[in-house]
Write a structure and sequence with these properties.
The chain is of the alpha/beta class. The chain has helices at residues 9-37, 85-92, 98-101, 115-125, 139-142, 171-174, 178-183, and strands at 43-44, 51-53, 56-58, 69-75, 105-111, 131-133, 150-156, 162-168. The longest helix has 29 residues, at 9-37. The radius of gyration is 20 Å and the shape is globular.
C-alpha cells in the first residue's frame, strides 16, 4: 500500500503552512455561508401534524420540548427491517444534546417508519435522542423528503407558530458527520473512489463499506 512522501520536518512544516492558507480561506467562506443562512426568510408550518413517539401522539410544537428552535433529522425509511447505514452512522455521530439545549435548541429524529420499528431500532442501536414516526401525516412530503433523508431547522414564534428556516440533504448532511470530518484529516481520507487521492491510495466504491455499527464484524473492511 502506498504512503505519503517522507520529508524533513522543515519540508513538512512548509507544506503544512501552504495548506493552512487554503484552510483559512475555506473557514472564512463557511463563516460567510453561516451568516447568509442566518438571514434566510422562513416559511410557516401550520398543518396539524400528528407524530407518534414512544410516549404517544405529539404535534409539531411538542417536538420543541419547550425550546425556541428545533433541528429535525429526517431518517430514511427503507421498509420493514431494512435500515439505511448512512442514516444510522449520522445518528451515531450525534453526541450529548445538552450543548444544543443550552442554546434553546432541541434535536429530534423523524421518520416515516412505524413507531414500533423505530422503537426496536433505537433499542438495538442504543440511541437516546428523541424520535418520532410521521407515518400518519404529510410532514415528510411537506418537507420534501418523502421516505428519504434530510435535515430541517425550525423556529417557534412567540405566538407558538412554527416556521421552517433551513433544509439540506445529500452532501449538505454528509458534511456534518464527525467521523467523515475526522477521516478527511487523515492521509487516506474516506478511502472512497470519488475522492481525488494520489494513485495507489486505498479506495472502495461509495457506500460499500458502510454498516450499522453492530455489523462491522460481519464482513467489514474495518
Amino acid at each position: 500500500m502506498k504512503t505519503p512522501e517522507i520529508v524533513t520536518a522543515e519540508q513538512w512544516q512548509a507544506a503544512r503552512d501552504e495548506l493552512l492558507v487554503r484552510e483559512k480561506e475555506a473557514t472564512r467562506l463557511l463563516d460567510d455561508l453561516a451568516a447568509r443562512r442566518r438571514r434566510l426568510p422562513m416559511v410557516a408550518f401550520d398543518q396539524p401534524y400528528v407524530f407518534q413517539g414512544p410516549d404517544g401522539p405529539a404535534g409539531l410544537p411538542d417536538l420543541f420540548e419547550g425550546r425556541r428552535q428545533l433541528v429535525v433529522y429526517h431518517m430514511m425509511d427503507n421498509g420493514p427491517d431494512d435500515y439505511c447505514p448512512g442514516c444510522a452512522s449520522f445518528t451515531d455521530n450525534i453526541g450529548n444534546l445538552s450543548h444544543l439545549h443550552a442554546r434553546d435548541t432541541t434535536y429530534a429524529v423523524v421518520s416515516t417508519m412505524p413507531i414500533q420499528q423505530l422503537s426496536a431500532f433505537w433499542r438495538r442501536m442504543g440511541w437516546t435522542m428523541p424520535f418520532y414516526s410521521a407515518r400518519a401525516s404529510s410532514f415528510a412530503e411537506d418537507c420534501g423528503v418523502g421516505q428519504g433523508l434530510g435535515l430541517s431547522a425550525f423556529l417557534r414564534g412567540e405566538d407558538g407558530r412554527v416556521f421552517r428556516t433551513y433544509f439540506t440533504t445529500a452532501r449538505g448532511v454528509d458534511r456534518l458527520r464527525a467521523d467523515f470530518n475526522l477521516l478527511d484529516l487523515t492521509a487516506y481520507g474516506r478511502q472512497e473512489s470519488w475522492e481525488d487521492s494520489p494513485e495507489g491510495w486505498p479506495q472502495t466504491e461509495p457506500y460499500q463499506w458502510w454498516r450499522l455499527h453492530d455489523q462491522y464484524d460481519q464482513g467489514s473492511a474495518g
